[in-house]
Design a protein that fits this description.
Number of domains of chain A: 1
Radius of gyration of chain B: 21 Å
Oligomer: heterodimer
Order of helices and strands of chain A: HHEEEEEEEEHEEEEEEE
Number of helices of chain A: 3
Distance between the termini of chain B: 75 Å
Largest interface: A-B, 41 and 37 residues
Number of strands of chain B: 12
CATH architecture of chain B: 4-Layer Sandwich
Number of helices of chain B: 9
Helix content of chain B: 25-40%
Structural class of chain B: alpha/beta
Shape of chain B: globular
Strand content of chain B: 15-25%
Largest sheet of chain B: 7 strands, mixed
Strand order of the largest sheet of chain B: 1-2-3-4-5-6-7
C-alpha cells in the first residue's frame, strides 16, 4: 500500500515539478495585478525583445538586453520599460523612462537572478498601450550571493562613475552610451543566522541621465541590479554638450519591503560629448 | 513482516532510535586516506570534480602536520563526514592531540568539516577577513549545501576563527614551527598559507591549482602579485589546494600564472576596445581549454569576475 502511494506520488509530482520551473503563477496572480491592474497587455516581440543568457555564469551578474523594434519619434515612442524577475524575493528590477530624445529605447544592464525564473520586460507606449516580452533564465542564488569578491575595494570607490560613448558619434543619430557606477548595491539578504548579523540593504534607487539638460533616461531601480551597476542606453547628440548622470542611494529596513527606508547620498558625473 | 512492523513504529520512537544509532554510524566511518609527503606532513589528495551530490563536496586537498607536542589540521574537507574521517586519520597516525585547525580560506570544500574538530583546546586559525566572509556567505552556503551537495548543515557547522592572522603568525607544534601568512586579496579575500619551517614545505592551498582550472573569487591582479612574490622563493615541497604534490617549485606554478596573465591581457584588450562583458565571456581565453580540467565549468565565470574587476582600472 505504502509503496504504491510513494510511486503514485513520484509519478504525479515529477512532471509537475518540471513544469513548475517555467510557471507563470507569480506573474498571473500577483505581479500583473500589482503593476497593471485592469489593463490589457499584448505579448510578443513587435515592440521590444529581451536578450539574456539561458544559463547564467554568475547569478549575481546576469547581463540582459532590451532591444527595441521601433525608433523613438516624437509621435510614437516607448515611454517606459518595466523589468521584473518573477521569482526574485523582490521581483521589481527597475522602471526605465525614456523619451524621444533617447533616440532608441534599447537598454542593457546586469541583474541578479535568484532562482530559475522568467525575466520579463513590459513596454508602455506614449499612447498607453502595453507590450510584454519574456525570457527564461536558469540561475541560482543571485540575491543572497556573497557581496563582491573584494568588498574593501568596492567600498573605497563607491559613487565613482564612468561614461563611455561610442567612437565618433554622428550628429543627430542615436548614439550608444555606457554608464558604469561603482556601488556594491547590497541586497540586505546577504546575512548570517549565527550572529543575526545582517548587512542592511544599500542600493541605488534613482538614476537620471540628461544630455544638454534634456532627460534621456530616468530610472527607478532596486536590489536586483548587480553590484557596480552598468547601463547602456542611447541618446542623440545634435551638438556639443554635457552628458550628466545623477543617482541617489537608499538603505531599507527589510530587503523585501520599501516601507521603511533611509535615503542616502547623491552622486553625479558629467561627460562632454562632441559629435 | 519485519519491515511492516518497522513501518508501523510511532515516528517519535523511530527518531529516538535514529538518534541512538547516529554516533555509532559516525564511529564506523573509515579514516581518510592520507599520504606522508614530507616528514610529519600528511595530505589527503582530492579529486578534480565539481562539488556535487555524489562527492558531497569532498574534492579539495586537506591534511595535517604533526609536531612533538600537538597537531595542526589544515582544512577540514567538504562535509562534516569528511572532517570526521580526517580526524580519524589523525588519530591513526599519532597520539598527539589536535591544537590548531587552520582554515586556508572560506570555500566550502575547505571548511565544512570544521565541526569534527570543535572541542576545548583546539584553536581555529584564519585570515583577518575570514570571519566576515563566513558571515556574509554563511547562509548562502548552507542553503546551497542541501540543494547541490545533498548535505545538511546549520550555522554551527561554520566555525569562525578564534585566532586571527592579519599579516603572519608563528604557531609552535612542539619543536616544529609553522609560519602562517595572511595574503592580500588573491584567490579570495581571505587566503592563508602555511609554511612548515622544518621541511621547508609550503601549504599553498587554493592559491595554486594544478590540473583543475584555477578559480577566481578575489582579485586577478592580486593573485598574480602573490604568485610573483612566492615564485622568487625556494620550497622543497608545495601543496596546492587542488592537484598533486609539487616538488619543482617555481616551475610548477607556471601554467597557472600563464592562464591568469592571459586573462589579464586579453580582458584588458577587450575592455580597451569597448567589448561588453557578455561578449567577452565568449571570446577570451578559449585557447587554454585543452590545458585544464573543469574549464567549461569555471572559465566563463573567471572571465566574468576578472572583467568586473578590470573594468574599474584607471
Amino acid at each position: 500500500m505504502k509503496l504504491h502511494i510513494i510511486i503514485m506520488t513520484l509519478l504525479l509530482t515529477a512532471p509537475l515539478k518540471a513544469s513548475a520551473d517555467k510557471d507563470e503563477s507569480i506573474w498571473n496572480n500577483q505581479l500583473k495585478q500589482h503593476f497593471f491592474a485592469g489593463k490589457s497587455i499584448e505579448e510578443g516581440e513587435n515592440i521590444i525583445r529581451l536578450d539574456a543568457p539561458y544559463r547564467a555564469e554568475d547569478p549575481a551578474l546576469v547581463p540582459i538586453k532590451v532591444i527595441s523594434q521601433i525608433p523613438q519619434t516624437s509621435s510614437r515612442y516607448i515611454k517606459k520599460i518595466l523589468l521584473l524577475v518573477d521569482k526574485n524575493p523582490y521581483p521589481f528590477v527597475g522602471e526605465f523612462e525614456l523619451t524621444p530624445e533617447s533616440g532608441k529605447a534599447d537598454l542593457a544592464m546586469r541583474i541578479r537572478v535568484n532562482t530559475y525564473s522568467y525575466v520579463r520586460a513590459i513596454a508602455e507606449m506614449n499612447d498607453g498601450k502595453l507590450y510584454m516580452t519574456k525570457t527564461f533564465v536558469k540561475a541560482s542564488g543571485g540575491c543572497s550571493a556573497p557581496i563582491g569578491a573584494d568588498l574593501d575595494a568596492a567600498m573605497r570607490r563607491l559613487g565613482k562613475m564612468k561614461f563611455r560613448v561610442e567612437d565618433a558619434p554622428a550628429p543627430g543619430e542615436p548614439t550608444l552610451a555606457q554608464l558604469m557606477i561603482s556601488h556594491p548595491n547590497i541586497t540586505g539578504m546577504q546575512m548570517d543566522q549565527v550572529t543575526r548579523f545582517i548587512r542592511r540593504s544599500h542600493f541605488m534607487d534613482q538614476l537620471t541621465v540628461k544630455f544638454d539638460g534634456k532627460t534621456v533616461l530616468k530610472a527607478k531601480t532596486d536590489i536586483a541590479i548587480s553590484a557596480d551597476p552598468n547601463f547602456r542606453f542611447y541618446f542623440v547628440p545634435n551638438h556639443k554638450g554635457e552628458l550628466v548622470a545623477e543617482f541617489t542611494d537608499t538603505s531599507c529596513e527589510k530587503p523585501t519591503s520599501r516601507a521603511v527606508c533611509e535615503s542616502g547620498s547623491r552622486y553625479s558625473k558629467s561627460y562632454t560629448v562632441d559629435p | 513482516m519485519k519491515t511492516a512492523h518497522f513501518l508501523t513504529f510511532p515516528p517519535a520512537l523511530l527518531s529516538f532510535f535514529l538518534i541512538l544509532f547516529a554516533p555509532l554510524q559516525l564511529s564506523a566511518l573509515e579514516a581518510l586516506k592520507v599520504r606522508q609527503v614530507a616528514d610529519g606532513i600528511y595530505v589527503h589528495f582530492g579529486v578534480h570534480e565539481l562539488p556535487d551530490k555524489h562527492n558531497h563536496g569532498a574534492i579539495a586537498n586537506i591534511g595535517f602536520i604533526v609536531g612533538e607536542r600537538c597537531v595542526a589540521v589544515i582544512d577540514t574537507g567538504g562535509n562534516p563526514e569528511e572532517g570526521e574521517r580526517l580526524k580519524k586519520a589523525v588519530e591513526q597516525t599519532t597520539d598527539k592531540p589536535v591544537c590548531y585547525v587552520i582554515n586556508t580560506h572560506v570555500h566550502p570544500d575547505h571548511i565544512y568539516g570544521n565541526i569534527a574538530f570543535k572541542q576545548p583546546g583546539v584553536e581555529f586559525v584564519g585570515h583577518a577577513n575570514l570571519e566576515r566572509a563566513m558571515l556574509s556567505r554563511g547562509q548562502y552556503y548552507i542553503d546551497k549545501a542541501a540543494e547541490q551537495l545533498d548535505i545538511h548543515l546549520s550555522p554551527k557547522n561554520i566555525i569562525p576563527p578564534d585566532n586571527v592572522v592579519k599579516q603572519y603568525k608563528l604557531l609552535n607544534l612542539g619543536n616544529r614551527e609553522l609560519v602562517v601568512t595572511a595574503h592580500p586579496t588573491a584567490h579570495t579575500d581571505n587566503d592563508l598559507t602555511v609554511l612548515d619551517k622544518k621541511t621547508n614545505t609550503l601549504w599553498l592551498s587554493d592559491l595554486m591549482f594544478s590540473g583543475h582550472l584555477p578559480v577566481l573569487d578575489g582579485s586577478l591582479k592580486g593573485w598574480l602579485q602573490v604568485i610573483e612574490k612566492l615564485e622568487k622563493k625556494q620550497f622543497n615541497h608545495v601543496i596546492p589546494g587542488h592537484g598533486g604534490l609539487v616538488s619543482n617549485w617555481p616551475q610548477a606554478i607556471k601554467p597557472q600564472k600563464d592562464y591568469l596573465t592571459m586573462l589579464l591581457n586579453e580582458i584588458r584588450a577587450k575592455i580597451a576596445k569597448g567589448v561588453y562583458l557578455e561578449d567577452a565571456v565568449n571570446q577570451v581565453g578559449l585557447t587554454a581549454r585543452s590545458k585544464w580540467q573543469l574549464f567549461d565549468e569555471f572559465h566563463r565565470k573567471n572571465v566574468t569576475t576578472a572583467f568586473a574587476e578590470l573594468e574599474w582600472e584607471d
